[in-house]
Write a structure and sequence with these properties.
There is one protein chain. The chain has one domain (3-177): Glutaredoxin (3-Layer(aba) Sandwich), CATH 3.40.30. Helices cover 24% and strands 24% of the residues. It is built from four helices and eleven strands. It has an eight-stranded mixed beta sheet, covered by helices on one side. The longest helix is centred in the first third of the chain and has 16 residues, at 49-64. The model has no long low-confidence stretch (mean pLDDT 95).
Length: 182
Amino acid sequence: MVKTESSQRLKTGEKAPDFNLIGIDGKLYSLNDFNSKTLLIIFISNHCPFVKARIRDIIDLQYKFNNDELQIIGINSNDPNYEGEGFDNMKKFSKEYNITFPYLLDETQEIAKTYGAVCTPDPYLFDQEKKLVFHGKINDADNPEKASTRAIMRENIQKLLKDEKIVNDFDPSIGCSIKWKS
């Protein structure tokens, strides 16, 4: 595990870059398939202890808000040949954690590069126009063993739904580095 902090390439107010990625359900997804008031795109992986520690919080977010209010999309950009990664392992991970949102494979890693994602989890929150409003933490726990005391992403989604300003639009997430192809 290489502990990595997210960096900001995609800036607040910029549109979400489009994608055409296969989901573990066999369907091809693009940005236009999602029309909720908020969109949370999270770069995740199957093996990362940070993702495993926060996956329940991510799944709970989808349950907290209805589909009109929030749509979560998980994207795996790790080298599919890295241990524990790849399409079949994504299916196993999804089943093990009962993931209820689309989980997509970025096999070429181009989508992660376009977004500027460098770690897992690396969350990006977009408004209804698919403009970036927040890039950062799910909660305030900075390592897998720590319990969270503040649900940062939930607070920001609630602010966005109430048309309130998100004061801190970049709060770097911390996780495992994305495993880039050699």
